[in-house]
Amino acid sequence: MARATKTPATWDSIFFSTPEQKVLRYLLSSRDTTYTLRVLVSKLKGVRGLGGIQGLEKILTDLEEAGLVHFIDNRRAVRVSDEHAGNQVFRKLWGLCELESLYAQLQSVSTKGVLLSTAPGEINLYVVTDQPDEVRKLTEQHPMGKLAVLVLNSREQFDSAAKKDPKLWTALNQGVRIWGSSW
């Protein structure tokens, strides 16, 4: 009898498992701000439980009731409500999911990684390393490398950031530490 192998759980499979979450994940991660329903349903082919354009409309209506998206152009297109607190949290979760496999590679050449912020199609990552060229190379070779905006500092620069760059220090304290020791 053949043994079935179980796919290991990823952050993405945990945080974005339902069709509603997958639709919202796509909308939050895309650089485009507005989508027609036809374009959106074609981009989301293969999402289990979507149910075609009618299912997508129902999902988007539910998301609209929650205030996460709003329809425009007589309900022919949809736009994400960027100012909604739930979307801001989901966007950080999207950034963490995108960085999951990259951080496994960067841990060996760095001592700390902090997710500073996320924007549509962009992830700002702060890395403490003594090998900045290696971190850049690994990031550029990674599938999500085109989304990453890196801020690379040595341990000495990190230690003096509170005095020399208070704005960066504030961003670091408000960011999400992905790996490395706490402050």
Q: What does it look like?
A:
The structure is a single chain. This protein is α+β, with helices and mostly antiparallel strands and 183 residues long. The strands form 2 sheets. A 4-stranded mixed sheet has the order 6-5-4-7, sandwiched between helices. Strands 1-3-2 form a 3-stranded antiparallel sheet. A hairpin with a 2-residue loop joins strand 4 and strand 5. Helix 2 crosses helix 4 and helix 3 packs across helix 4.
Oligomer: single chain
Helix proportion range:
40-55%
Strand content is 15-25%
Runs with pLDDT <50, length 5+?
none
Distance between the termini: 51 Å
Helix and strand content put the structural class at alpha+beta
Number of DSSP helices? 9
Q: Describe the sheet with the most strands.
A: 4 strands, mixed
Q: Let me know the number of strands.
A: 7
Spatial order of strands in the largest sheet: 6-5-4-7
